[in-house]
Amino acid sequence: MSDSFRADLRPMCLLVFNYDQHSDYSLIFAGNRDEFYERPTASADYWDDASHVLGGRDLKAGGTWMGVTRSGYWGVVTNVREPGAYRDDAQSRGALVADYLREEPDPRSYLEQVEADADRYNGFNLLLGTPSSLYYISNRESGIHPVEPGLHGLSNDRLDTPWPKVQRAKRGIQARLQRNDVTVHSLLDLLDDRRPAPDDQLPETGLGTERERMLSPLFIDGERYGTRASTVLLIGRDGTVTFAERTFESGASVKTRRYTFERPH
Length: 265
Description:
By secondary structure, the protein is of the alpha+beta class. Helix content is 21%, strand content 37%. It starts with a helix and ends with a strand. The N terminus is likely disordered.
């Protein structure tokens, strides 16, 4: 695998979520984190240095791709696929989520600071939420955007860009909503879809057809790179928060961790 391709594959992710449109849940979230199998990672748990934070840890840079606090603050970051544009001297994008979860600031004020320093990072998409608000920002477009209630998807372009994997994930969660099948098991099953998109539907991001095809499933199962973790987050209107993470090694399931707690009202 070439060094340029390794840089282009800095973590790719997929997530889909229903926000503030369900009678029982203010948030229904399901997402996959894709990364090189060799990158050191800690599975989801409460953090030793911030015991109110629950999430996985990137043991190389210290950040996280996704996590939640006992108060119901949550955040997730994906990169923007930009072949050839990766900068080794850029700041860690995982720190954007980790710092937010540690501090639990007003999300809009925090994002104003992020926006002011956005050129210090490689391309990113950042979603930051509380039990009553949700915001989106990308350093590849201007502005801080409140997220409207509804069904949304995000991969490695802008929010709701209709890549085949994003559209398939949105259809999958919509079907579960319609049959009232909103469970951890059902959402993890959705994330395990390993079917590639048809070639005529692949996005054109500069990686070539073979690589676009390899990256097109919801769950990526490559030789040295693929889905490392699947995460489900359910924030109930009654104050119950459920967080589940299933980890993988080379495409094979290793462990599923599930946490449930009551956030303050």
